[in-house]
Model the fold of this input.
Amino acid sequence: MERKNAWLTYDEFDKQALESLCAGYRRFLDNGKTERECVAESIELAKKYGYVDLRDVTVLRPGDRVYMSYMDKTIALFQLGTEPLSEGMNILCAHIDSPRLDVKQNPLYEDSELAFLDTHYYGGIKKYQWVTIPMAIHGVVCMKDGTKVEVIIGEKETDPVVGISDLLIHLASEQMGKKANVVIEGEQLDVIVGSKPANEEKDAVKAGILSILKETYDMDEEDFLSAELEIVPAGKTREFGLDRSMILGYGQDDRVCAYTSLISFLETIGPERTACCLLVDKEEIGSVGATGMRSHFFENAVAELLNAAGCYSELNVRRCLASSAMLSSDVSAGFDPNFASAFEKKNAAFLGRGMAFNKFTGSGGKGGSNDANAEFIAEVRHIMDEAGVNWQTAELGKVDVGGGGTIAFIAALYGMNVIDSGVPVLSMHAPWEITSKADIYEAKKAYDAFLKRV
Ligand code: MN
Ligand code: MN
Done:
């Protein structure tokens, strides 16, 4: 049951559509390096397609286009179908948070005439991968008076970058003998931000940094207490491979599925069943918090939608959610011949073979997984084959090697049919992740087909 490489199926139209989709995707990645930036970017795109804030709408009719964001970190978008909402929606869901280093509450210190920002990593990372690369600072600083300053340092050609040092190889014999998870430890992920003393006093390098922050952002040291600053790899995405068949970029887990879901959704016109695109935060730390998938945000948004559509009742909200179907997208592990022993080749996702569907995720005995119903998978197979989508099925890796959870099981709590799906990635969770343009194109095609589901 080996699947064909998608590139072999393309004509000129496909090749052009693929390149234009990937160009838009690269812009989305470059402009969206945090969940907040991704929500802002999504709203900007949605407005171009005529979407308006659900909070500004009192009456909704079929064909109407609305969105609802929450705390600037998660967003649900809807296009009302002609079928009653109580018969459910077709939902595309993906997450827009990515592994990174978060700046601590009390971060700034000076040691040996170097100034540092202390960080606490977010999500699963191999800590040793995050040293000696150029990094940027993205985020917000919220002031006591209610004002909010947006920060992006390190992305413009003329911006300075920051970063974390590593021990020189000449003195590293002890370090090189350590296990990889302690070669660099969490408390060593401190970012160097300065080295120039502002005066002859003690901690004058730190004082210099503070005066730059004051000048640029009118911020005091105390304002770090109410800031969300994320340290991420600096620089833009690139085409990858001599044949330009891949994309190298930060945060492709899971913005690759988020962007393709969003574009497919936005291009939808006049669906029978109501179409929904849900982009959530906090997946990488367990879908917690008010903006993660475990939050009631989505349920509340659906209740508001039904209310505006004139059919709200608690029973209708429950019927709507239980009758919905979802492609819960998240990236898959792409088979890597360099690490073949971690994979079971018959059930692995391969770069270039298209959209990957995972009946289940989880670890060990499918622990923590949504296990999609065979009946629903049969329907999805039918939809994908009818639409000529290149697709494959996969597990994350060998059964006992590891695992990981996604958001599918949380959506399934409502009783809806949901299956994990997504784009295969090489070097997942590394500062720079690799995807295939063909898989990005096939994911978009898969979403297009799913949103036409009746
Ligand atoms: Mn992840
Ligand atoms: Mn993910």
The CA atoms of residues 124 and 184 lie 14 Å apart. The pocket of manganese (II) ion (ligand 2) is lined by residues 95, 253-254, 283, 330-331 (CB under 6 Å). The two ends are 29 Å apart (CA to CA). The first strand starts at residue 52 and ends at 53.
